[in-house]
Write a structure and sequence with these properties.
- This protein has 238 residues and is of the alpha/beta class.
- It has a domain of 134 residues: P-loop containing nucleotide triphosphate hydrolases (Rossmann fold, 3-Layer(aba) Sandwich), CATH 3.40.50.
- Helices cover 33% and strands 29% of the residues.
- The strands form three sheets. The protein has a six-stranded mixed sheet with strand order 6-9-10-3-11-12, with helices on both faces. A four-stranded antiparallel sheet has the order 2-1-4-5, covered by helices on one side.
- A hairpin with a 2-residue loop joins strand 4 and strand 5.
- It is globular.
């Protein structure tokens, strides 16, 4: 289980979230809802260990062990994955080398060029991605839909247990969103958990969730069962 215990988050010049507690059990899916500027993405970045966000108090536990002092790389090796709201691009880093590096790190062994080529090319075929993408700089000149598909590719490749989806509709038109949402939903398996961060409800038409957390004005204001989704829409997002 991934647990957030009474955490308060700030940056060097601003206080963001206060006394937040949530728990995420494997085999169940969750949604973190909040309007703009409710610091949902800041929470996701804190879970992943982004050093920009300071954990002022509280703890983050994975299977009853604190991970608050671990680096993002170390947290990733513990089967936590974050799909970014705004996907970064890195000029000079080829997509193939990026994928080979993160896969080797996850498997605790180095994969050669040929070994990894045999692993990654079938995944590209499954997602209808052009193999030429492998030799391009990471996300440079990729469309929003292509970037999202590459995140789905990483989920298929790494098989994480806790998958945080931070507003994955961002940067997509309606058709591209539907395509990506369907691909993401196919990755939901009995051995993993989706944590969907959003301020809209459309994604929930594709990914079934069990519990909804609502953030507002720097704090957690409600926990709801998903069966009350219509009540949530009316009372909090009308």
């Amino acid at each position: 289980m991934l647990e957030i215990k009474n955490i308060s988050i700030n940056t060097q010049d601003k206080s963001l979230l206060h006394n937040i507690s949530m728990d995420f059990q494997l085999w169940k899916n969750y949604c973190i809802l909040g309007k703009n500027w409710s610091w949902k993405s800041s929470l996701a970045m804190t879970i992943m260990g982004n050093s920009k966000y300071i954990l002022e108090s509280g703890d983050i536990l994975l299977d009853n062990q604190s991970i608050k002092n671990l680096s993002p790389n170390e947290r990733s090796k513990l089967w936590i994955f974050l799909a970014f709201q705004h996907i970064p691009e890195i000029a000079g880093l080829k997509l193939f080398e990026f994928l080979r590096t993160i896969y080797s790190a996850k498997q605790w062994q180095e994969y050669s060029f040929l070994q990894f080529k045999k692993i990654i090319e079938p995944l590209f075929q499954e997602l209808n991605l052009e193999k030429d993408f492998l030799w391009r700089d990471l996300n440079v000149w990729f469309s929003g839909g292509e970037r999202r598909k590459l995140e789905v590719l990483q989920i298929k490749l790494l098989q994480p247990k806790y998958i945080i989806l931070d507003e994955i509709d961002s940067g997509l038109d309606v058709d591209a969103f539907k395509t990506v949402a369907k691909l993401v939903a196919k990755q939901n398996q009995p051995w993993n958990t989706f944590i969907v961060i959003t301020h809209i409800f459309t994604i929930l038409e594709y990914i079934p969730v069990d519990k909804v957390y609502i953030l507002e004005e720097w704090k957690l204001v409600k926990e709801w069962d998903i069966s009350l989704i219509e009540k949530i829409k009316k009372e909090w997002f009308n």
